[in-house]
Inverse folding.
């Protein structure tokens, strides 16, 4: 059963691992699909953080849009998929990295992860997706 707008936005706001898909830009190849952390608040833009020169960062810049799907399997199978244009790409800040890491990691691991990531991951950018098209379902809600 499809989710209501409120249900799908609330589900997307939860800290699931997303599956990002973007046109690969490589002839004869399927879209690039990779797991990723993301941020979202109901009614707003979704955002991700990635290397400016990473394969996904370059593919998003070339395609101008991407999609993200999140799911869970318990207590019921539920998913939300959102697709839209990349509306902004800006240099990432350490504060954004702390925000993202805090969403996914236990509090006692955030500082160590942020220190390592800020030093080792190279130049990072934050890319904002404006949700245009949604697919959602809860397969246990029948």
């Amino acid at each position: 059963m499809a989710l209501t707008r409120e249900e799908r936005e609330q589900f997307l706001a939860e800290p699931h691992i997303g599956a990002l898909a973007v046109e690969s830009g490589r002839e004869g190849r399927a879209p690039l699909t990779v797991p990723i952390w993301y941020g979202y608040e109901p009614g707003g833009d979704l955002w991700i953080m990635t290397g400016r020169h990473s394969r996904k960062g370059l593919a998003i810049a070339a395609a101008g849009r991407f999609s993200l799907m999140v799911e869970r399997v318990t207590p019921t199978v539920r998913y939300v998929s959102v697709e839209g244009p990349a509306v902004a790409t800006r240099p990432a800040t350490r504060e954004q990295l702390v925000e993202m890491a805090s969403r996914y990691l236990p509090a006692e691991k955030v500082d160590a992860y942020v220190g390592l990531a800020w030093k080792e991951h190279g130049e990072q950018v934050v890319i904002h997706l404006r949700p245009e098209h949604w697919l959602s379902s809860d397969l246990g809600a029948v």
